[in-house]
Amino acid sequence: MSDFDRNDLRAFLAAARAGRLTVAAQRMGVDHSTLSRRLSALEGTLGARLFDRRPSGFALTNAGERLLADAERMESLAIGLPARLDADAHQVGGTVRLGTPEAFGTYFLAPRLAELCTAQPALEVELVANPRSFSLSKREADLAIGMTRPETGRLYARKLVDYALGLYAARRYVEAAETIRSVDDLPRHRWVGYVEDLLWTSELNYLPQVSAAIHPQARISNVITQLEAVRGGAGLAVLPHFLARGCQDLVAVLPEVHIVRAYWLIAHADTRDLPRVRLVSDFLTRQAEAAGNAFWLAPP
């Protein structure tokens, strides 16, 4: 172990997270042959094979899995040490990457970032608002907003806020289409829904909860594009109230149809107490609490 090189450990973490040598080398900004040499050096130092090299990519061996847990703890310590030493400083610096669903990130969080950035000029915020889940163990984000509480991993999660959804259509669509008096009328109308095999969470599979007889004519992979399709008259869709509230050209259909979901605030156990991560976590909590019924009530 006297020849142990911390850069070899960084190479190991990059390869374990990427699963492919070329991708890991790109992320580290090194040549793939350099990365390969570092991995071989680490395996030689430890006297263990850490990866199975397969055509589909790199897969961790049992020894690699054991090393991964220790390597991530060492990485978290290295990341957190400067922040802990400076924990009493008035200003919090560094970068926090926040992964969110696209509607929450775009329509709720983005308009509120000015307050955070003004109060903490040394803090850099990377907002990734995409319809996907984020792996905190692979450091894809420092904080994530999910739609379910994670059941595995060294993660800390708490419910940020419940939110409600309803049925919406463009005013012009409702005026031109057959009258909707009950749920039984819904299957006779055009619908906009999700592309089923691209759903990043089952929580987005709303339509069976409304009616098993509904079959969308237009399937769209994200809710913001769905919103625009509905506004254009493509049909009805299930939309969050906080998203539909800003669209005067939309009308609620069958307000008694009420769907509830939740946003969860998720952090990795190793980094959640870092000052910069804690600051952003507290900011999100305050903003969600201040929004109050905006997440829950349908537009007037």
From TrEMBL:
It holds the Pfam family LysR_substrate. It comes from the Bacteria. The keyword Transcription regulation applies. GO terms for molecular function: DNA-binding transcription factor activity; sequence-specific DNA binding. Keywords: DNA-binding, Transcription, Transcription regulation. Signal peptide: none annotated. GO terms for biological process: DNA-templated transcription. Residues 4-61 form the HTH lysR-type domain. InterPro entries: LysR-type_TF_proteobact-type, LysR_HTH_N, LysR_subst-bd, WH-like_DNA-bd_sf, WH_DNA-bd_sf. Belongs to the LysR transcriptional regulatory family. This is Transcriptional regulator.
